[in-house]
Specification:
Blueprint lengths: L28 E9 L2 E9 L1 H15 L7 H31 L2 E2 L4 H23 L8
Antiparallel strand pairs: 1-2, 2-3
Helix pairs in contact: 1-2, 1-3, 2-3
């Protein structure tokens, strides 16, 4: 999904019946797969957040197991920033859960659904900025 709430084709492939194709996504984003059956399109929503998952694990490890040394002056900022990150993560995963619990197969993506997906994309963009900004908020060694 792009920032203008549109999807653009990455590639088009034909997959025969009872066969599979492995697709690897390298960035966190929202992807759609359009499947045509009997001249009718079905749109599957796939949300990749592997980089976010790895970032959250790293941040949790940094808070629980800080590197050796005097980090006392950094800890309160680390906790504050981590709490802000977790509040956003909680909201994101709540929205993600609602998406997958309600439906992830559509015959058309209406403007309301595109807005919901764009909100999810906005969270992914914020997480990407946070997670790539630096290795650790307060770099104690």
């Amino acid at each position: 999904m792009q920032n203008d709430m549109t999807f653009f084709p990455i590639s088009a492939i034909t997959v025969g019946a009872l066969s599979q194709v492995i697709v690897t996504h390298t960035e966190d984003n929202i992807y759609t797969y359009t499947v045509n059956k009997d001249d009718k399109d079905y749109i599957y929503i796939v949300i990749n957040y592997c980089n976010l998952r790895n970032c959250l694990i790293k941040e949790i490890q940094n808070l629980i197991c800080p590197k050796k040394g005097n980090c006392s002056e950094c800890r309160s900022k680390d906790y504050y920033d981590f709490n802000a990150l977790i509040i956003n993560a909680h909201t994101y995963f709540n929205m993600l859960n609602n998406e997958y619990n309600f439906n992830y197969l559509y015959e058309a993506l209406n403007p309301n659904k595109l807005n919901e997906l764009y909100d999810l994309k906005s969270f992914l963009t914020r997480f990407n900025e946070y997670c790539t900004n630096c290795n650790k908020i307060c770099d104690c060694k």
